[in-house]
Design a protein that fits this description.
502 residues; Recoverin, domain 1; PX Domain; Substrate Binding Domain Of Dnak, Chain:A, Domain 2; two-stranded antiparallel sheet; transport; membrane; phosphatidylinositol binding; EF-hand-dom_pair; protein transport
Length: 502
């Protein structure tokens, strides 16, 4: 590890903290962010003041090395040591100590907000930062019965909100409707279909996974993740959520009427945005088709592993059945040959090994389904949401052009100055809304590009799972080699037994 300071090497945690508090992307630590970071150490104010005095360069900003010094001093202070310049100068350890700073989610969110305010035309987010915003888990709650029909509930857990609530499918529908009402200019993911009757286990599991992707895309969205509607959904623990949520947010204004950037949106939209959007949409169509093919191939890979598991189980079952066959031996038929007896003993030893092979294939399929297939599905979900957003913009733009044409004709033929003024204001409002819509699409496009790193995760997972999984399966097969080689024992040598049966 490279030494960034004279008194020790820097652990990865220090670099992570630098990325968080250097919100302006100018290699200068934000002072407010730094103070918030120090407070998270839970050290006494007097100690924090001493640390500040030791690292403050009186230049109006804090450098990377200054931040690293502060983190080291915080760690030393938490160890009960008296902070001083000598403490760090005399440090001879290989790696600087890591301070305890608790949950950093709020700092990450503040960093993202400051970065966006600094350069509103750049999303400026990494895939790691997006994933760190929140992690939502969904589990099926054991089935409950209503008065007439059974219904399914989901346990929803949000890491960021430290919440655990139960939700029904219709609650998700209400959430989506409210978000589309407030954020029509953003990518809102689709919901899985509702199946009223005959929902089997596979349907429920597929829907659970889809709902999990739906919520994670929302909880990790740079704008929607901070909205009160989503927070209400993830934290409200009362009953009848969908109706309470609709009542609570009744008449909510859409983002254009509540976002401070809306009035200045024209300045945030590059001149060639409309043409660029056409180019990007074609690119996204090609990306979608490619990822759809990857998904279909992965599904076949997973299905093959499941089939391999099933076949190995069936193969072992048939061996076991043969080994336990109760038919009487006939010396007349065998002529004294003991091959069948030897084979029956050998098959009993091999049977449990084949069950282990079956379990290994099933485990591999399960992990590939979760770590590869689900990641591809998540990216396809965001691409679908992006396409629907662009379709909404085309529809909006078409309606605005038609209205503008009619209003232009009305202004040209009207002699009433009040009517003309009203038409002009309406036209200007639509123009502002159009620019804001384009600005939002620009940000959503950058968000899709950030999510493209999913492919890296997919490939790494696929390689890792296949390497470990097939190596494990190969080891099990190799364990069976001596069992198969000695199915018919050589006279005078003991018969090997299964390691599992022992």
């Amino acid at each position: 590890m490279a030494a960034d300071l004279a008194f020790g090497t820097v652990p990865p945690f220090y670099r992570e903290m630098y990325d968080i508090v250097c919100a302006n992307q100018e290699n200068v630590v934000d002072q407010d962010m730094f103070i918030k970071l120090l407070v998270k150490s839970s050290l006494p104010k007097q100690t924090l003041s001493q640390i500040w005095e030791l690292v403050d360069t009186r230049q109006g900003y804090l450098s990377r090395s200054g931040l690293y010094k502060a983190l080291a001093l915080v760690a030393f202070a938490q160890q009960g040591k008296q902070v001083s310049e000598k403490l760090i100068q005399n440090f001879t350890g290989e790696e600087l100590p890591k301070p305890s700073l608790g949950d950093l989610t709020d700092l990450r969110i503040l960093s993202i907000r400051l970065r966006r305010e600094k350069n509103p035309m750049r999303l400026g987010l990494t895939y790691h930062e997006i994933c760190a915003l929140d992690s939502v888990q969904i589990a099926l709650v054991p089935e409950k019965k209503g008065l007439f029909l059974k219904h399914v509930e989901y346990e929803v857990t949000s890491q960021r909100n430290k919440s655990n609530v139960q939700r029904r499918y219709n609650d998700f529908v209400a959430l989506q409707e409210l978000l589309l009402q407030k954020f029509p200019y953003r990518s809102i993911p689709q919901l899985p279909p509702k199946k009223v009757m005959g929902a089997d286990e596979q349907f429920l599991e597929d829907r659970r996974k889809s709902l999990k992707r739906f919520l994670n895309l929302l909880a990790r969205h740079p704008v929607i993740s901070e909205d009160k509607i989503l927070h209400f959904f993830l934290t409200f623990s009362g009953t009848d959520l969908q109706h309470k949520m609709k009542d609570h947010f009744r008449g909510v204004l859409d983002e254009f009427n509540s976002n401070e950037q809306a009035n200045d949106a024209e300045e945030l939209v590059p001149i060639d945005s409309f043409n660029q959007l056409s180019i990007v949409r074609e690119q996204m169509k090609q990306v979608y088709n490619g990822f759809q093919q990857l998904k279909e191939v992965t599904e076949r890979v997973v299905d093959r592993a499941k089939q391999e598991s099933s076949d190995m189980l069936l193969f072992g079952k048939e061996l076991c059945s043969l080994a336990n066959s109760a038919s009487a031996e006939s010396d007349w038929g065998s002529g004294g040959n003991e091959t069948w007896d030897d084979l029956k003993r050998g098959m009993k030893n091999i049977h449990p090994m084949l069950s282990t092979v079956s379990s290994a294939y099933l485990d591999l399929a399960s992990k590939e389904e979760e770590e590869v297939l689900e990641e591809l599905n998540l990216f396809l979900d965001i691409l679908t949401a992006y396409k629907e957003l662009c379709d909404r913009y085309e529809q909006f733009n078409s309606v605005v052009r038609q209205k503008s044409s009619r209003k232009l004709l009305a202004r040209q033929t009207s002699t009433n100055p009040i009517v003309v003024d009203a038409e002009n204001q309406a036209h200007q409002l639509n123009e502002k809304r159009n620019y804001f819509f384009l600005h939002c699409i620009h940000m959503e496009t950058q968000l899709v590009h950030t999510y493209m790193q999913v492919l890296v995760k997919v490939l790494q997972s696929l390689v890792s799972l296949r390497t470990k999984g097939l190596s494990n399966i190969s080891t099990i097969w190799k364990t069976m080699e001596p069992l198969t080689e000695n199915l018919i024992p050589i006279p005078g040598t003991p018969s090997p037994t299964s390691t599992i049966s022992r």
